[in-house]
């Protein structure tokens, strides 16, 4: 990205920057004679399509799809990340961009990350571990999209994601490969090890897995009026 281009300009020009916060791949929802939704992940597309079929609008559908992807495509996306949402309204064609990038915690200081002689952060502390975590922007961004452009509330559109988190879903080839590739890191964390390494073995393609902690978080968000605190 050219240095003269701001993040918001980049979002507007490219359509939708999803990063780790929304859906892996390209996604688009459209209202009109023929409604459709395209995502990089099947369960999310199915959830969004069901929302459209039930009378929801494009924003309702894409938010539902994003929340589902945050459950079944954990290696590439999730509610603890960041993203962006681009809406083109009709009939005037006005464009609205919602930027919900993550922010550095207030306690982070310029000298928080020690660097070596080559300028690299020691121990990859800015990439792995608690210090690498930014303040999530996804739920607040999705809530804002629903408030401004949606016709359904968060409690409605989060239901498919809660169902997948509670009932489980088959691990995809990409999911399994990502977990295997990160095994050395993930296995050192008790929570990750419990979630991804049943009986010490990494998640395999086709194996059914559940993310009940994720289900609990989403259920709490559904019961509150808004996604306050996120």
Return Rg in Å: 19 Å
The rough form would be described as flat
Number of domains: 2
Structural class: alpha+beta
Which regions have little confidence, pLDDT < 50, spanning 5+ residues? 1-31
Number of strands: 8
Mean pLDDT: 76
N-to-C SSE series? HEEHHEEHHHEHHHEEEH
Q: In which order are the strands of the major sheet placed?
A: 1-2
Strand content: 5-15%
User: Roughly what percent helix?
Assistant: 40-55%
Q: Count the helices. How many?
A: 10
Give the termini distance in whole angstroms.
29 Å
Sheet bearing the most strands, described?
2 strands, antiparallel
Write up this protein.
The structure is a single chain. The protein has helices at 7-14, 42-53, 58-72, 138-149, 154-157, 159-167, 173-181, 183-186, 190-196, 212-223; strands spanning 28-30, 36-38, 83-88, 95-100, 169-170, 197-198, 201-202, 208-209. It is an alpha+beta fold. The chain has two domains: 7-102 and 137-169 and 211-222, no CATH class; 172-206, no CATH class. A two-stranded antiparallel sheet has the order 1-2. A two-stranded antiparallel ribbon has the order 3-4. Strand 3 and strand 4 form a beta hairpin. Helix 2 runs antiparallel to helix 3. The radius of gyration is 19 Å and the shape is flat.
Question: How would you concisely characterize the structure shown here?
Answer:
GO terms for molecular function: transferase activity. With 230 residues, this protein is of the alpha+beta class.
Write the layout of secondary structure elements.
Layout: H1 7-14, E1 28-30, E2 36-38, H2 42-53, H3 58-72, E3 83-88, E4 95-100, H4 138-149, H5 154-157, H6 159-167, E5 169-170, H7 173-181, H8 183-186, H9 190-196, E6 197-198, E7 201-202, E8 208-209, H10 212-223
Antiparallel strand pairs: 1-2, 3-4, 5-8, 6-7
